[in-house]
Design brief:
127 residues, alpha+beta, 4-stranded antiparallel sheet, rod-shaped
Amino acid sequence: MGPKRSVVKDESGSIFWRLLIIILSAAVVLSVLIPQLNQMREEAEIARCREQMAQIAEAEETYREAQGLYAGQLDSLAAFLPDAGLTACPVDGRAYIISAVDSTGYTISCPNEHGLVNTGRMSWEKK
C-alpha cells in the first residue's frame, strides 16, 4: 500500500504543475492580445469618427446648395444629416466643432483631435 500512495502524490503534484503551466500560458497570450484588441478598437472608433465628419461635410455642401451659404452650427444641418447621432465623436460623445464663413468655407473638427475637415479637404487623407 505504501508505493500506491506515493504514486497518487506524484499524480496530484503533476496535475498541479500542468494546471499552473496552462494558466500561465493563458496569461501570456492574454497579455499580448489585450493591447492589440484595444488598439484595434481605438482605430475603429477613429475611423467611425472620421466617417461621421465626412458625412457632416457632405451635409454642409448640401446645405450650401440649398441656402447659398455654409451652416455654422450642427443644429442647422440636422435636416441634411442621414442620422441625428452623427453630431458627436463616438469615443466620448462630445459634439464636433463647426465654424463657417458664409459661402467661402467651413471647418469641422473633432474635440478628440481625430481630424479636421476644411471645406471638403480631410486632414487624414493623403494629398
